[in-house]
Please model this.
Amino acid sequence: QGQLVESGGGLVQAGGSLRLSCAASGSIFSIDNMGWHRQAPGKQRELVAVINSGGSTNYADSAKGRFTISRDNAKNTVYLQMNSLKPEDTAVYYCNAVLSFRGSQGRYDYWGQGTQVTVSS
Model:
């Protein structure tokens, strides 16, 4: 079985930057999509950005022009560079990845534990 471990959250002032990292571990055969979602108090979880195995990306409108998602396939890691942060970006950010494992058939959807991002005004 696999695991996603997130890091990089914290408290920043409006206009600042953070970079989130998420590393997948386990007997991984391949990784399909990797992405980031976020959930603010009282709101539903929403997609922020996603990147497929070939490097093609997609962003929520609120993230376009400010956030950049990337991946390092050799390290089984996905990143989210967040610039020009706004108070409305405050949320728990969750890593998501679709994994296949050596010796197992099928694909499985994994989630990280979440990391808190707080942006003060």
Q: What stands out?
A: The mean pLDDT is 95. The longest strand covers residues 28-39. The two ends are 41 Å apart (CA to CA). The chain is about 0% helix and 60% strand.
